């Protein structure tokens, strides 16, 4: 696909503008503290007790390597919500879909006061435990993406999904957009995912953009909703078909000769057509579909 704006022909390759503007980074954000911060209403002294954590699926991704063992325990001496306990281990609550306390399903507000065995299940799992109460929304097709995931944002737009993305956005802006526009938050900053206002979110495990897009499609069950080449990768607005006559004055001489089908962004006005790199993009989309299936 190629873009022509103000009479200048620019080929869209896999190194697109969103990726170029994204900030570089060296991995997930600072590790979470091991110190529990009980909620205001939970500060009630009780006899010391122990909680034991068992993780299913890929949730051990959030644990430090030295903590990835079957027997993860923590001693507590005050009434504490299970959400606070989970996040003290480094697991953001949007990543947890089912919580079992002593084999009984509970939600994040459940208060722990005695010894307990806690089992946690991620959203993507084939476990029969999913018959229990689920805490997360499986499907969502509108996102806000943090500044370190520019290529993922571009890829999601390429597939037709509504993605709010600003490489300069601060945490409070990301959370505001998420709440105001009812979007799922995509970030590798686990501390950002732990904000109480985050209802739906996901932390891509991989640092590879091709693997990240597959993860997001699987997590939010998006395979059947893919609509490639229907959204502007620059501004996120939808595209509409236009006749050659409408935009011919904006085309380069060779483009006028060899191409007849065009789309125009309803937001920024960029022109799109199936240029020399279109077949490469199609092959990449086929590969993504195959991995997701």
Judged by helices, strands and strand pairing, the structural class is alpha/beta
Mean pLDDT: 84
Question: What strand order characterises the main sheet?
Answer: 2-1-16-15-14
Distance between the termini: 25 Å
Radius of gyration: 23 Å
Major sheet description? 5 strands, antiparallel
* Helix-strand pattern: EEHEEEHEEEEEHEHEHEHEHHEEH
Strand content: 15-25%
Oligomer category: single chain
Provide the number of structural domains: 2
The shape is: elongated
| Secondary structure: helix percent | 10-25%
* Contiguous uncertain segments of 5+ residues: 1-42
User: Helical segment tally?
Assistant: 9
- The number of E-state strands comes to 16
Would you mind describing this structure in some detail?
This protein folds into two domains: about 170 residues, no CATH class; about 90 residues, Ubiquitin-like (UB roll), CATH 3.10.20.30. About 25% of the residues lie in helices and about 25% in strands. Strand 12, helix 5 and strand 13 form a beta-alpha-beta unit. The strands form four sheets. It has a five-stranded antiparallel sheet with strand order 2-1-16-15-14. A five-stranded mixed sheet has the order 4-3-9-6-7, with no helix packed on it. The N terminus is likely disordered. It is an alpha/beta fold and about 290 residues long. About 30% of the residues are buried. It contains nine helices and 16 strands. Helix 3 packs across helix 6.
């Amino acid at each position: 696909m190629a873009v022509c704006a103000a009479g200048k022909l620019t080929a869209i390759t896999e190194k697109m503008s969103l990726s170029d503007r994204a900030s570089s980074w060296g991995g997930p954000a600072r590790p979470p503290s091991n110190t529990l911060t009980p909620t205001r209403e939970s500060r009630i002294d009780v006899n010391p007790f122990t909680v034991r954590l068992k993780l299913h699926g890929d949730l051990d991704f959030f644990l430090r390597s030295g903590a990835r063992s079957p027997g993860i325990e923590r001693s507590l001496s005050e009434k504490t919500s299970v959400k606070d306990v989970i996040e003290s281990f480094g697991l953001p609550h949007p990543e947890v879909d089912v919580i079992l306390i002593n084999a009984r399903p509970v939600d994040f507000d459940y208060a722990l006061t005695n010894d307990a065995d806690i089992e946690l299940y991620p959203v993507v799992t084939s476990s029969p435990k999913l018959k229990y109460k689920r805490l997360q929304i499986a499907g969502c097709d509108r996102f806000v993406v943090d500044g370190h995931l520019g290529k993922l944002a571009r890829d999601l737009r390429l597939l037709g999904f509504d993605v709010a993305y600003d490489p300069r956005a601060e945490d409070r802006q990301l959370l505001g957009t998420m709440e105001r526009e009812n979007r799922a938050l995509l970030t590798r900053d686990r501390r950002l995912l732990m904000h109480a206002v985050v209802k739906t979110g996901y932390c891509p495990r991989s640092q590879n953009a091709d693997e990240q897009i597959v993860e997001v499609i699987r997590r939010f069950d998006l395979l059947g909703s893919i609509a490639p080449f229907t959204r502007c990768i620059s501004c996120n607005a939808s595209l509409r078909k236009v006749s050659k006559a409408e935009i011919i004055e904006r085309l380069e001489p060779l483009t006028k000769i060899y191409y007849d089908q065009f789309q125009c962004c309803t937001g920024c006005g960029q022109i799109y057509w199936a240029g020399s790199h279109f077949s490469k993009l199609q092959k990449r989309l086929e590969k993504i579909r195959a991995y997701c299936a």
